[in-house]
Amino acid sequence: MAGRSExxxxxxxxxxxxxxxxxxxxxxxxxxAMTRDGNPLHLDPAFAAATPMGGIIAHGTLLLAPLWQALxxxxxxxxxxxxxxxxxxxxxxxxxxxxxxxxxxxxxxxxYDVWVEAADGTRxxxxxxxxxxxxxxxxxxxxxxxxxxxxxxxxxxxx
Amino acid sequence: xxxxxxxxxxQPGAILGRRSLTLDxxxxxxxxxxxxxEAPLSTAVPAGLxxxxxxxxxxxxxxxxxxxxxxxxxRFELLALPPVGARVTTELRCLGKEIRNGxxxxxxxxxxxxxxxxxxxxxxxxxxWAA
Lengths: 159, 131
Known about the structure:
The structure holds two protein chains of two kinds.
Chain A: E1 19-22, H1 25-35, H2 40-43, H3 45-49, H4 60-75, H5 77-80, E2 83-89, E3 98-105, E4 111-118, E5 123-131, H6 140-144
Antiparallel strand pairs in A: 1-3, 2-5, 3-4, 4-5
Chain B: E1 15-22, H1 25-34, H2 47-61, E2 70-78, E3 87-100, E4 103-113, E5 119-128
């Protein structure tokens, strides 16, 4: 049986299974309490309104939760170890926003361009997720190293 | 001394401290409340929660912070997911600081290890410092 990260044909998925999150004031407050991050930019409407953000915004790391979930749903928990996730925060997310995390496989076959976007398609996070885990034979390896055509007269099988 | 940590206070290379915590039920329950789809957590701790715990360690060690800091960039290297109930220790250091495009940027590095000292999660982050 193919793992979560593989299609029936044995290739890794071309896109991540998307994961969404509804961001609201209660979620932000509870996340702030759990992380002990009481930055008023997340909690104090008057303070936040006076900043260039123009109002309350969610914690950046809170927005990563659906991205981790998308990676785990797609790759499986056992393949999550070995992931290098490198992201930039592009836009703020505000209470009331619904965000969706996803990604598309890169040409190297072992990494994804990842993103988190708002309902209108605006990217709020962009980056890459690289799998450093040893690829299984016939899955990632096949994609990284395309078959070479054998030279005429060569007896060696293609790598 | 300033009432809050300012850009000038950071010394590149300095260790800012370390904190240990146990990933027990009391700590997992709020996460399950936030993300019911991941409940009940019974085996490995989800990556999102580890990320949140790194933020918690940062918030405890780098204080008092000026209001209005903004996270600009983050890089995680996830090496292993610890089991529920594991004791983990995170060390935080200042990797550097710079002014770029007129904005103060402070670079932090954190490493979370298990009880045996094996790394679980390595993080690099850049924060736009407000003061």
